[in-house]
Design brief:
With 209 residues, this protein is α+β, with helices and mostly antiparallel strands. The chain is built from six helices and four strands. It folds into two domains: 84 residues, Arc Repressor Mutant, subunit A (Orthogonal Bundle), CATH 1.10.10.10; 71 residues, no CATH class. Helix 2 crosses helix 4 and helix 3 crosses helix 4.
C-alpha cells in the first residue's frame, strides 16, 4: 500500500467521493472483508460488497487474500493507498493553468501552481511505478514567523534573487541528455488553527479598532 496516491481518472474520482465508499477507503487502511466492514460501518454485507466492487473496479482497493469459510470464500481487500488526492487530470476541461495569468503575488495563481504539481507528480509516479524505477524528487517544507510585513517582503526578494542565481548557475538549456526539472518555491501564511475555547462575544465588551 502506498502512502499517498493521485486519482487521475474522472470516474474513479466520482467513485471515491461517495460518502460510503470514502468511509470504506478509510477503513481499508488495514485489510478487511465485506462482512467485517459491514459490521463496523453499519451496512449490510451485500451493500458493503456492492461498494467494494466499485472501488476495486477503479483500482482504489485491491485483493490481498481469499479465505475459505465453510461453503463461502471471503475476499480480503486493502486500499491501494493510505490517503488520496484528486488530480486536476480528473477534470481536464476545467483544470487550472498557471501559465494563463502568472502573478507571483496572487494566492489563486499559487493554487493553480499547486494543482499543476499534483497533476504532474501523479503522472510521473504512475509512470515510475509502471517502469519499476525510482523518481528523483526533492522538497523543502518549513515555516517562518515574520515580525513585520517589511521583513516578509525582504525575505521574498532575497529568496527570489538567490533562486535566480542558482538557476543561472546550473541551467543548461541545450545540454545533451539533460533532463528538465520544474522548480517551485511557495510562500503563504499558515492557516490559523480554530480556537478550541472561543470567547463568548456576549460576555466581552466592545473591541477597540
Amino acid at each position: 500500500m502506498h502512502e499517498i496516491a493521485a486519482i487521475e481518472d474522472g470516474a474513479a474520482a466520482e467513485v471515491s467521493l461517495h460518502p460510503i465508499r470514502a468511509g470504506l477507503l478509510a477503513a481499508l487502511s488495514t485489510p478487511g472483508s465485506a462482512s467485517s466492514l459491514a459490521s463496523s460501518l453499519g451496512l449490510t454485507r451485500q451493500k458493503a460488497n456492492y461498494h467494494l466492487r466499485a472501488l476495486e473496479e477503479h483500482g482504489l482497493v485491491e485483493l490481498i487474500e481469499e479465505r475459505k469459510k465453510g461453503n463461502m470464500v471471503e475476499r480480503v481487500l486493502q486500499a491501494t493507498a493510505a490517503s488520496y488526492v484528486i488530480s486536476p487530470a480528473a477534470l481536464p476541461a476545467v483544470a487550472p493553468d498557471p501559465s494563463r495569468r502568472p502573478n507571483q503575488l496572487s494566492a489563486r495563481w499559487l493554487l493553480a501552481v499547486g494543482a499543476r504539481m499534483i497533476r504532474e507528480l501523479g503522472t510521473l509516479i504512475t509512470g515510475a511505478d509502471a517502469a519499476g524505477k525510482p523518481l528523483a524528487t526533492y522538497g523543502i517544507d518549513s515555516e517562518i514567523t515574520f515580525a513585520t510585513a517589511a521583513d516578509r517582503a525582504a525575505f521574498a526578494e532575497e529568496l527570489g534573487s538567490t533562486i535566480a542565481a542558482l538557476v543561472g548557475k546550473y541551467h543548461r538549456e541545450n545540454a545533451s541528455g539533460g533532463r528538465r526539472h520544474r522548480l517551485v518555491v511557495a510562500l503563504h501564511p499558515t492557516p490559523k488553527t480554530p480556537d478550541p475555547n472561543p470567547t463568548d462575544p456576549k460576555t466581552t465588551g466592545p473591541k477597540e479598532n
